[in-house]
Amino acid sequence: MKRHLISAADLTRDDAVLILDTAEEMARVADRPIKKLPTLRGRTVCNLFFEDSTRTRISFEAAEKRLSADVINFAAKGSSVSKGESLKDTAQTLEAMGVDAVVIRHGASGAPYRLANSGWIDAPVINAGDGTHQHPTQALLDAFTMRRRLIGPDAGIGQDLSGKRITIVGDVLHSRVARSNVDLLHTLGAEVTLVAPPTLVPVGVETWPCEVSYDLDGVLPKSDAVMMLRVQRERMNAAFFPTEREYSRRYGLDGDRMARMPGHALVMHPGPMVRGMEITAEVADSGRCTAVEQVTNGVSIRMAVLYLLLGGNEPAVTNPRTEEK
Fold it and tell me: Is 287 assigned to a binding site?
């Protein structure tokens, strides 16, 4: 693996499978009475969040603490950033404190890349979401969830997602989750189809390693997993569709549409969900929806990434019998 995790496109197939396999080992830690490993004891990880977050920030913090790292949580609100301090000065402050890794979420696309390649800080940088660009650990936890559900936790070890058909539906234009998933799923051998209103399809999408469709009903019967995306109104400065009702009618997933999916197919959502918009409560609360499972798997994936970047380059093989003695 590279020193930093900035983009899902940076991962080779072997890198991605190594992370997924390591996450399977980390998931076993969650089943123990004491959910802790000493792997990163004495290491300091800073969570540098310039954008609001619930799942990602808490997930990274839980992962760091389960690996016994010391954790610094930095939020832009209430910090010197609100007084005008630059990313460079913030990074140099962290460098002076001797942090061993930085997890960064930023509203500007490219900020994590700038931090990793600036020379301002000598520590691995993990991108926790930058603008509309990338969110690599989200793509990894999504792939981890798909592999577990479509292949099986044990049967999936060492395997990718070759031949699986994944459909991503909704606001692709503003979605770093969609971009990251297209990159990673292609690397893992899956066939990806994007479904969105024409106004929410990015310029240049024809160069992406995926298909594009505007007919959700035509794609659903041949999908192994359907990922619904939230409409990101906070990133919109214009009207991209007539009404919410019209959007839901054409691109929302309800019980009738879910019934057209194959029996084994999953419904996924990176969260937060807007019930009644892109997904109905009936679908969100069904046994086929993996939204809560994705949050759980996010901790295992982020433990794996931190372990591989800071701890070791081989899967963290655990032997419960040895530990019991």
Answer: no
How many whole angstroms separate alpha carbon 2 and alpha carbon 195? 32
What residue ranges define each of the domains in the chain, with the CATH number in brackets?
8-135+295-314 (3.40.50.1370), 137-290 (3.40.50.1370)
- For residues 74 and 306, what is the distance between their CA atoms, to the nearest angstrom? 18
The 3-state DSSP class for residue 1 equals coil
The closest alpha carbon to 297, from 164, 137, 65, belongs to 137
Cα 247 to Cα 39, 80, 166, 202: the distances in Å are 47, 41, 21, 18
The band of 274, judged by pLDDT with boundaries at 50, 70 and 90, is: confident
Report DSSP state, residue 30.
T
Could you read off the pLDDT of 140-171 as tens digits, one per residue? 999 999 999 999 988 889 999 999 999 999 99
Q: Is 106 labeled as ligand-binding?
A: no
135 is in an annotated binding site: yes
The answer on whether 56 is annotated among ligand-binding residues is: yes
- Tens-place pLDDT, residues 235-268: 444 456 657 888 888 999 999 999 999 999 999 9
Q: Is residue 50 within 8 Å of 107, Cβ to Cβ?
A: yes
Is 83 labelled as part of a ligand binding site?
yes
**C-beta of residue 86 within 8 angstroms of C-beta of residue 32:** no
pTM summary value: 0.91
* 288 labeled part of a ligand binding site: no
pLDDT digits (tens, 9 = 90+) for 47-71: 999 988 888 999 999 999 999 999 9
DSSP letter for 202, please.
P
Phi, psi of 128 (to 5 degrees): -100, 20
How is the beta sheet containing 266-268 ordered, strand by strand? 211-213, 191-195, 165-169, 225-228, 266-268
